[in-house]
Specification:
0% strand, mainly alpha
Length: 167
């Protein structure tokens, strides 16, 4: 369980930054660098605040591996730069033991979000959205990208109980 008030504060900052990243990506398809940098910068303080032994190499290796893999998707124009950095920052928190489950949860949530986005692009859904909202949200417009920061942030929050420095 959480060992100190410092750990609780660090965890609250982690969740706050992920929520901010999701909101930013959802509203304007951008994840500011200061958010991902802050997320990465808070990790060492959070890990130390819990007072447990931390396998630093595991955490930094997870971040580096995810960054390298996601950078290839960026190079192929399949993923945005902010998404790459956010994935790597959350992978830093998960460590190697949690990175595969984190990526799997991200993929499932992202797939569900893509399905919802496709459903919102159907004519009947668009007529309903226009009747209710008097406009079409960006996510419902044809050709708009998926704000993948939302599934990344959701998966990052869901992974909190598995963080190695909680045990």
């Amino acid at each position: 369980m959480i060992a100190s008030i410092g750990g609780e504060i660090a965890l609250a900052v982690y969740v706050f930054l992920l929520v901010m990243a999701a909101l930013s990506d959802g509203s304007n398809l951008r994840i500011p660098n200061w958010l991902t940098a802050s997320l990465a910068a808070v990790f060492p303080a959070a890990a130390l605040a819990f007072g447990h032994q931390v396998d630093w190499l595991s955490h930094f290796a997870a971040a580096l591996a995810v960054f390298a893999g996601a950078a290839m998707f960026f190079a192929l124009r399949l993923m945005g730069g902010g998404d790459v950095k956010l994935l790597a920052a959350v992978a830093l928190w998960t460590g190697l033991h949690g990175v595969v489950p984190f990526l799997a949860v991200t993929a499932v949530i992202g797939g569900l979000m893509a399905l919802v986005q496709l459903l919102l692009r159907r004519p009947m859904a668009q007529v309903t959205l226009l009747a209710v909202l008097h406009r079409l949200p960006a996510i419902a417009q044809r050709g708009s990208p998926i704000p993948y920061g939302i599934p990344i942030a959701a998966a990052g929050i869901l992974m909190v109980p598995s963080f190695s420095f909680f045990t």
